[in-house]
Design goal:
Helix content is 37%, strand content 16%. The protein has 298 residues and is an alpha/beta fold. The chain is globular and about 80 Å long. The model has no long low-confidence stretch (mean pLDDT 91). The chain binds S-adenosylmethionine. InterPro entries: SAM-dependent_MTases_sf.
Amino acid sequence: MHFKQVQLVINFIRRKIDSLIYMDNEDFELAAVKDKFNENCDYVHVKKNSFYDAYMNNDSLLCHKWEQYMHIYNKHLQPFKSENKPVNILEIGVFKGGSLELWNRYLPENSKIIGIDINPDCKNIEFHNKNIQVFTGSASDKNFIEENFKNHYFDIIIDDGSHISSDVITAFEAFFPKLNPGGLYIIEDLHTSYWSSYGGDFLSKKSSIEYLKRLIDSLNFKYIQKFKKNLPLDYIRQLSTLNKELASITFYDSVCILEKYMCKKSRAFKNYLSGEGAAYSDLGMLCNKDTKFERFFR
Ligand SMILES: C[S@@+](CC[C@H](N)C(=O)[O-])C[C@H]1O[C@@H](n2cnc3c(N)ncnc32)[C@H](O)[C@@H]1O
């Protein structure tokens, strides 16, 4: 065996151990949860056309998602369902192809579904729908992305690929610019960002979760001007660029969702006043029935 192969095997075993430890801790934690908290728990009624419905009614290719992802996808993809217009979706990480078929079942008719996987076997998966397409290559290979996705733009991008912190960051930097206005960039399985076998660690500057936490400051870029001189230029540039495009960052257990503005924020948000005393104040713009609000959010 070559040195590289030995390294791959060692990494594989370390990852298995990391996930086993995670499972054990999870059971322990769950057992410790007090009943009071559980009293508020309820079941979700699986409605027709909901995400739960699309996930559970899978009689085709294997798909792998965690329990909380059902709720997260049901909530965040609802606006795309309500608009009922075809969407372009990209998922990094095809595996057996089940999730690509899931998007096809769940999203509006005629949506275009694209998957990327490093495993060349994924090219041979037989999908039941023509609007599903698979590209084989690495989502962290800039040349592969440039060659294949130069003119591709997506409404939804999901990173369910290697889950290695450096790959997650490289993919985000390459693909976030390819998100359409109002689009969502969704990163799954972020628990791996705490594992050294995935290039992460708790509070490590190199971990994907810490990288994402740092992006929060782009939302409030206007308010950090006076600290700029103490920060690396690259980071300032990134925050400034994202400030115009990044509308929100939502964190869940293992998942992060980054939402793009509907239109570029090329000015600061306005301060509107309504109600008693508004007319006599010079604090901001007056708001009345005819006020038109620019649509920044989906
Ligand atoms: C967790 S599985 C994907 C599961 C699938 N999305 C689902 O929900 O059923 C991860 C996949 O990512 C692929 N992968 C690993 N590294 C990758 C990379 N650098 N670029 C693209 N795909 C990668 C693996 O081959 C594997 O099929």
